[in-house]
Amino acid sequence: MQGALESIGDFSGMFGRAAEVLRRNDMNGWTRAAPNLYPHQWSWDSAFIAVGLARIDIIRAAREMMGLFSAQWATGKIPHIVFNPAAPPRSYLLGPEHWAPATPPEDAPDPPRQTSGLCQPAVHAIAALCIWKAADEMGMDVSASNARALVKSLYPRLLLWHRYLLTERDPEGSGLVTIYHPWESGTDNSPRFDAALAAVVVGELAPYERYDLQFVDESSERPTKEEYDRFLWLVELLRRVSYEEAEIERSHPFLVKDVLFSAILVAANEALLELAEATGAPDEDRATIEAWISRGRRGLRGCWDPEFGLCFDHDLRADEPLRVRTIAGFAPLIAGEPDPARLDTLLKGLFSPEFAGNAALRWPLPPSTSPEEPRFHPRAYWRGPVWPVMSWLFWRSLMRAGEKERAANLRRASLEQLAVGGFAEYFEPFTGEPLGSDDQSWTAAVALDWLAEDA
Ligand code: 2M8
Predict the structure, then answer these.
(1) How many A from CA of 38 to the centre of ligand 1?
(2) Which of 319, 181, 343, 179 is nearest to 261 (CA)?
(3) Cβ < 6 Å from ligand 1: which residues?
(4) What is the pLDDT of residues 264-276, one digit of tens each?
């Protein structure tokens, strides 16, 4: 392993290999999240994919986003999966039939698209801004003006999406997004949800088969049967109430204020503000977005735990903070922490032995859960492994905080990880072993963005 690392040199060839992964996963205008394990279009995966595509083909990058947003619900919700009608049978467990609502909602996309009823973190405006900036760098080129026109047409849809999150998902006006399912967090079976999930009583479930286990080497890398039962039961409850937000608020057993989702929304609102300015949006849009940013930061401040120096999610049903040390705890760093003392605490924590500074790590990259957390598991899904897209989010946040040296080190370590392990879905933090799916699109996409920084 060490020998391989020494021969990496300047990462030559990696850009071409990453572009090739996205080309192979291209389904003619949209990108599957992974070749076998994830044969559909996933919401936040597509946003990261567009960030990478912006480095090779800005029109294709804009189309990735346009395709996803064409499945937007009338409420503004961007569904977490847009189904591929041509996906091989028995490839992904939950097909459109599992999501079909008891009563068809008035706000489903028109014309009807087959989608899930959940959503995922709102990285999309960040991706749209990356496309806009890439177009700007190309100047008066025809594809640059076409890409700008596409992003401009996307802007009102992005605004509607954020408005949905700030209203339907935050009826309290707290600045924090409520999620209805751990899948909405994107960090599926992170231990931060264990306590809230434990309180969910699973009812009668139809028998189901775990198709995902065909595509990963060990079942320990994926959620357990008990976790899956809970995941499916929560989907069933949401389907039964036809995704009616007020009814979900009233009766759903899993309601969590998610600090990571909320922080990503703040960062996305900052990107949306830049886009509003660049596209000449009305003044009142800008005032609204600025207010959303302040509200989001205020909400995160309320979740700060000074003892741990981290931000914790809040279980609305139990009315308790979920005190588990995961990367979500660094949410204020992603949202842009204005207080220098708190920023310092966050930076020290992120690079401390509890996270990326742990001496036993193969590379100094933040593991999804702190190795010092009792529920840490180095191979299990979101319970310890390193996710390159999360490293990318931290890298971007460090750059925005002016932490250039830390950002450069994180980028370098990530590229070394990918040079040795390929474009895997996630990585064992101590050995660097690639885990989950091979050729995961969003991993290749963030590699493209990192590598293009050198150009
Ligand atoms: C994982 O989630 C899906 C469910 O949405 C799954 O495990 O089947 C997560 O890592 C999620 O964040 C990601 O968007 C998705 C596709 O890469 O896979």
Answers:
(1) 8
(2) 179
(3) 33, 38, 42, 44-45, 80, 183, 186, 188
(4) 999 999 999 999 9
212 is annotated as an active-site residue: no
Q: Of the listed 45, 221, 337, 425, which one is catalytic?
A: 425
pLDDT one-digit tens code per residue, 307-362: 999 999 999 999 999 999 999 999 999 999 999 999 999 999 999 999 999 999 99
- The mean pLDDT value of the chain amounts to 94
In three-state secondary structure terms, 360 is coil
pLDDT at 218: 78
Q: How far is the CA of 287 from the centre of ligand 1 (A)?
A: 34
Distance of alpha carbon 128 from alpha carbon 65, whole angstroms: 8
pLDDT over 70 (residue 455) = no
Helix, strand or coil, per DSSP, at residue 443: helix
Cα 83 to middle of ligand 1, angstroms: 13
Which value, in Å, is the radius of gyration of the alpha carbons in the chain?
A: 20
pLDDT in tens, 289-310: 999 999 999 999 999 999 999 9
> What local confidence, expressed as pLDDT, does residue 4 receive?
38
Reply yes or no on whether the pLDDT at 372 is more than 90: yes
Cα–Cα separations (whole angstroms), residue 185 to 189, 207, 388: 9, 26, 16
Cα–Cα dist 317/302, whole Å:
18
The model's confidence at residue 229, banded by pLDDT at 50, 70 and 90, is: very high
**Residues near 264 by beta carbon (within 8 Å), at least 6 away in sequence:** 121, 122, 123, 334, 393
Q: Which amino acid is at 237?
A: L
CA distances from 298 to 164, 274, 394 (A): 19, 21, 20
Compute the distance between CA of residue 79 and CA of residue 42 in angstroms, rounded to an integer: 8
Residue pair 205/232 in contact (Cβ under 8 Å)? The answer is yes
Q: Choose the residue to mutate in 30, 38, 185, 438 for probing ligand 1, maximizing ligand atoms within 8 Å of C-beta.
A: 38
The structure's pTM equals 0.96
- Pair 296, 266: CB distance under 8 Å: yes
Please give the Cα distance from 215 to 213 (Å, whole number): 5
Q: What residue owns the CA closest to ligand 1's atom 7?
A: 188
What residue spans of 371-439 are helical by DSSP H? 388-400, 404-421
SS3 272: helix
Q: Taking residues 116-132, what's their average pLDDT?
A: 98
Catalytic residue among 26, 107, 188, 249: 188
